[in-house]
Amino acid sequence: MYSPPTDPTAQQRMRRAFAGSAETLGVTIAGPEVWGWHGRTLSSRVEHPDRGACWLRLLSTPQDKAAGKIWEGNCQAAALFDGHVHKPLLYDTTESSSASYAYRAELHQYVDEPASFPSPVLCTDLVSPRSWWDSLRTDLEYVNTVPTDRVAVRQEWVDRSVPRYLGMPGPRITDWATAHGDLHTANLTSTTPYLLDWEGFGLAPVGYDAAMLLAYSLLVPEFAHRIRDTFPVLKTELGRVAQIVVITELLQSASRGDHPELVPALRALATELA
Questions:
Q1: What is the pLDDT of residues 199-248, one digit of tens each?
Q2: What are the residue boundaries of the Aminoglycoside phosphotransferase domain, all occurrences included (predicted)?
Q3: I want to staple 204 with a disulfide (CB 3.0 to 4.6 A). Which of 35, 72, 179, 256 is the partner?
């Protein structure tokens, strides 16, 4: 999905840590490199002597930031959701450090399904069966009911950021629910679907996941229409608030260089909602 870090030293550092984690967990690297956002993660298919094919994911962060929501997200998600929704099981973890960096390696179930789309921003229509949508809706409904003290969106951030990026007052969030937190077609597999990358899950406005999937799919009106049909919450006041929050998040991300191609569609949707 993403490219390796531009700094060769960072690439080498991550590869050394990945190889060391693989050795610690007793697995053999058996697939190509898959780099995450800004080179923060490195993953690959691996072979475990007992479990067979698995997925090894290495997360890197400066040592003084090796804590908190993102660092602990996948482990906490496994405790709450493994066996209850379609997500890769978490088998094992290990942590290490070198120089000024900390690493967490996670050994997951290998899912033999490709992502629905290689980028978060959907650019071509996907023809998914009704069962795909029904499964996704059922899983998200379950996630919404699971209590958590993790927070994906804060009212204070909304109050500060919505006026900055949309020129309107931040809406008051009255209804909260647990959300996956990063729902787009690159985090949904093409057949089941499995929901991938749970590190950002937590409390968010009701309808947040549906709003996120919609916002990332605005360049493909046919797919966006199916999202609205599948998640009627988007047509309610709660869904309007969730969409405003998500649009603000993605505009903030675009201001830092992420997915600028989405900005006109985000602003058009914000105008409709306002």
A1: 999 999 999 999 999 999 999 999 999 999 999 999 999 999 999 999 99
A2: 151-226
A3: 179
Tell me what the pLDDT averaged over the chain comes to.
96
What whole-number distance in Å separates Cα of residue 168 and Cα of residue 15?
45
